[in-house]
Write a structure and sequence with these properties.
Elements: E1 9-10, E2 24-29, E3 42-51, E4 58-67, E5 73-78, E6 82-85, E7 98-105, E8 114-120, H1 126-131, E9 144-147, E10 152-155, E11 162-167, E12 170-175, E13 185-194, E14 199-207, E15 215-221, E16 241-247, E17 255-264, E18 267-270, E19 274-277, E20 286-287, E21 290-295, E22 310-313, E23 318-321, H2 341-350, H3 367-371, H4 387-395, H5 397-400, E24 407-413, E25 421-426, E26 432-437, E27 441-444, E28 447-449
Antiparallel strand pairs: 1-2, 2-5, 3-4, 3-7, 4-6, 7-8, 9-10, 11-12, 13-14, 14-16, 15-17, 17-18, 17-19, 20-21, 21-22, 22-28, 23-27, 24-25, 25-26
Length: about 450
């Protein structure tokens, strides 16, 4: 858990009496809660000069890009950064007090600034230093001066990890407290897609812990409980709410562990672990006698986190009616869910009478029955997809290929029209499910499971 502490040092140097320099040296040290320096880290710093009071009018703002050194220190010159508002040379230092606000972005992106506080600027011309008989050399690196209303006084340098605060208008070095800040609250939600080399998932940050979120995303590994020290992670923003992540560069037929994470200045928290297995090959590739068409998600019946399962589409369509006229009336198989197609098909087949054909003629064969008679690639377990199985195939139709702009029969009968209608998927209109008279001839795409 990281906590940032800053060592604040401001020095003025002057070229002539009453002349204010065009740069103010500024040094800060970043350390974690254990006192270890955040070393060799790219950061962005933003300074704002405010007039009269700490909440006064903004007269100047600038940004700096810098990198901490091997002991966690960074050095910049205020006034020599990239201006955002105003010009440094136009600041009227002789009128009113001036306050400086410092903001830090430890991600280095410039979009995650955290306000580290505002302090009064205590700068004076060289002549006043000399007039008070105070040595410009100081006793230690980091020593400073402050004005007590009558004379200039030395402020000895603080220890690493301390911040400069005002106590009764006197600058005082203290250790900062983050007792009111905790890591964000984040939850890992559910997988939304799985292929052989990628996957998608949603997560939710419900609380920022009392400080702005610096980064959020997911981290994954083939080992349990992955953490953000891994390179296999996403960075999906800094907001409270639900976000989506895409995992890429995955290996086929491999089990992965994924956790959501969210980080603020207090540390990083993780959501619960989700386990999933990638598909053996990519959707659209040949597999199991046909073409891999869909990989089961955790919300689907038959899903396993340790072994991938899904649907294989037959390479070609079958043309026929949903159910021929020799079977009689009735509703056979009305389930629409993924995993229901095989059972629906068995119910339809059980009503089929050998030698019968559709009311529209012998060419209008019963799709469900004849699909179960297929032997393609050595596989004989083909069936007519359920409504949702057919919709899943529609969603991946561009990868599977060879579909017509037509209705495609599913094995889901319409319970509101018993004995007469069943659902087909309209491949010519956004994959919508439509109830049609079931002896009409339309293509169907046989599937099997793996």
């Amino acid at each position: 858990m990281k906590k940032l502490y800053f060592l604040f040092l401001v020095l003025f140097t002057h070229l002539a009496y009453a002349q204010v320099p065009q740069g103010i040296p500024y040094q800060a040290a970043a350390r974690n809660a254990s006192g270890q320096a955040l070393v060799n880290t790219a950061v962005k710093v933003r300074f704002s000069i405010l007039d009269s009071v700490a909440t006064g009018t903004l007269v100047y703002k600038e940004t700096h890009s810098t990198t901490t050194n091997t002991v966690g220190l960074f050095n910049v010159n205020v006034g020599m950064g990239t201006p955002v508002t105003g010009t440094f040379s136009s600041i009227n230092w002789g009128k009113n007090a001036k306050f400086m606000q410092m903001e830090l972005d430890i991600t280095g992106t410039g979009s995650n600034y955290v306000n580290m506080g505002t302090q009064q600027m205590l700068s004076v011309p060289y002549a006043l230093y000399a007039g008070n008989g105070i040595s410009m050399n100081g006793n230690n690196i980091g020593d400073m001066l402050y004005w007590d209303g009558m004379k200039w006084n030395n402020v000895a340098v603080g220890a690493n990890g301390m911040v400069l605060t005002l106590s009764n208008s006197i600058p005082t070095w203290t250790f900062a407290s983050f007792t009111n800040i905790s890591p964000p609250s984040v939850a890992t939600n559910s997988m939304t897609a799985i292929s052989s080399t990628s996957a998608s998932i949603t997560s939710t940050v419900s609380s920022n812990g009392g400080s702005g979120v610096l980064s959020e995303g997911v981290v994954w590994s083939t080992s349990s409980n992955p953490a953000i020290n891994l390179t296999s992670k996403t960075n999906d923003g800094t907001s409270v709410g639900t976000y989506s992540s895409t995992l890429t560069g995955l290996s086929p037929n491999t089990t992965y562990y994924v956790r959501a994470y969210s980080t603020n200045i207090s540390g990083t928290s993780y959501g619960s672990q989700v386990v999933f297995t990638t598909a053996p090959v990519a959707i659209g590739q040949s597999y199991g006698g046909g073409i891999l068409a869909y990989v089961l998600l955790p919300s689907d019946a038959g899903y396993s986190s340790t072994q991938s399962h899904g649907l294989i589409a037959h390479p070609t369509d079958f043309l026929g009616a949903w159910l021929d006229g020799c079977t009689g009336g009735g509703v056979y198989g009305t389930l629409a869910t993924i995993g229901a197609g095989s059972g629906n098909t068995s119910l339809i087949k059980s009503k089929y009478q050998t030698g019968c054909f559709s009311l529209n003629g012998p060419s209008y064969l019963c799709s469900a029955y004849y699909i179960t008679q297929l032997n393609t690639g050595g596989y004989t377990d083909w069936f007519l997809p359920s409504q949702n199985e057919m919709i899943a195939i529609y969603n991946n139709r561009s990868l599977i290929g060879s579909f017509q702009n037509s209705f495609y029969w599913s094995s889901t009968g319409d319970p509101l029209n018993p004995g007469h209608q069943a659902y087909a998927i309209n491949f010519n209109n956004l994959g919508s499910a439509v109830s049609l008279t079931r002896y009409l001839q339309y293509p169907s795409r046989p599937i099997r499971t793996f």
